[in-house]
Amino acid sequence: EPEVTQTPSHQVTQMGQEVILRCVPISNHLYFYWYRQILGQKVEFLVSFYNNEISEKSEIFDDQFSVERPDGSNFTLKIRSTKLEDSAMYFCASSPGTGGRNEQFFGPGTRLTVL
Amino acid sequence: RKEVEQDPGPFNVPEGATVAFNCTYSNSASQSFFWYRQDCRKEPKLLMSVYSSGNEDGRFTAQLNRASQYISLLIRVSKLCDSATYLCVVNPPDSSYKLIFGSGTRLLVRP
C-alpha cells in the first residue's frame, strides 16, 4: 500500500538555525500539506500546496516558513530561524484531490527539537 | 465555541464492549467529516470518512447529525488493539484544503 514517507524521523537543532524537513507524498496525489502537533496538543494545519504553489496557509505559517517541491517526488518544509516554540511533531500529508472528498494521508512525522 | 470539540476521556472499557464517541462542530456549513486514529507519538491514520447517510466499516459505524452538528463513532466488540486516541476531523466550508482536528478522545480497552 503506498504511503507518505518523511525524513528525518528526529531533528535536533539550535535556536536560530535553519532546518529542512523532507517528505515524499504518495505518488499519484496532487495536494500536499504540512501540519504540526506540539506535544500534548492537537494537530494544527500549516499549509497546503497544489500545482507548485501554496493554496492556503494558516496564521502559524509566517515568513519563517517556506515550502517547496524541488523535483517530482519531494516536498519540503523549511524553517529559516528556528525558535524554541517550533519544537513539535511535523506531519506531511497528501491527498488525491479528486472525487470531491479531501481524504488526507499522513506520513510518520519528523520530531523537531529546538534547543 | 471550539471549531471541533470532543470529550477527552479516557474511556476505559473491557474487551468486547461497545463504545461510542461524539464530536461537535461549530460551523454548520462544514461539508466533509472524518474520524482518524492516532497511537501514542504516531501519525493520524484515516479510520473512515463520515457520510450524510451514515456508514459502516466492519466493527466501526460513523453517523452524522447535521441538525445538531455532531458526529459519532461507534466501535463494537472492542479489541485491545483499538486502544488509541480517536480524532474527529472537519473540513471547514471556507477551505477546500485544510482539516480542523479535535483534541481527540482517548480509548483504553482492557483485557
Describe, in plain words, how this protein is organized in 3D.
The complex is a heterodimer of chains A (115) and B (111). Chain A has 115 residues and is mainly beta. Chain A has strands at 5-7, 10-13, 19-24, 31-37, 44-50, 53-57, 65-68, 75-79, 88-95, 105-106, 110-114. In chain A, the strands form two sheets. In chain A, strands 2, 4, 5, 6, 9, 10 and 11 form a seven-stranded mixed beta sheet that branches. In chain A, a hairpin with a 2-residue loop joins strand 5 and strand 6. Chain B is an all-beta fold. Chain B is built from no helices and eleven strands. The model of chain B has no long low-confidence stretch (mean pLDDT 94). Chain A binds chain B through residues 31, 33, 35, 41-45, 48, 50, 55-56, 58, 89, 91, 101-109, and chain B through 32, 34, 41-46, 49, 87, 91, 95-104.
Inertia-based shape of chain B: globular
**In this structure, how is the largest beta sheet of chain A organized?**
7 strands, mixed
Question: Radius of gyration of chain A, rounded?
Answer: 13 Å
By secondary-structure content and strand pairing, the structural class of chain B works out as: mainly beta
What is the percentage of strand-forming residues of chain A?
Answer: over 45%
Chains forming the largest contact: A-B, 24 and 21 residues
Question: Helices and strands in order, then pairings?
Answer:
The complex is a heterodimer of chains A (115) and B (111).
Chain A: E1 5-7, E2 10-13, E3 19-24, E4 31-37, E5 44-50, E6 53-57, E7 65-68, E8 75-79, E9 88-95, E10 105-106, E11 110-114
Chain B: E1 4-6, E2 11-14, E3 19-25, E4 32-38, E5 44-50, E6 55-57, E7 60-65, E8 70-75, E9 84-91, E10 100-101, E11 105-110
Task: Describe what is shown at a glance.
The complex is a heterodimer of chains A (115) and B (111). With 115 residues, chain A is mainly β.
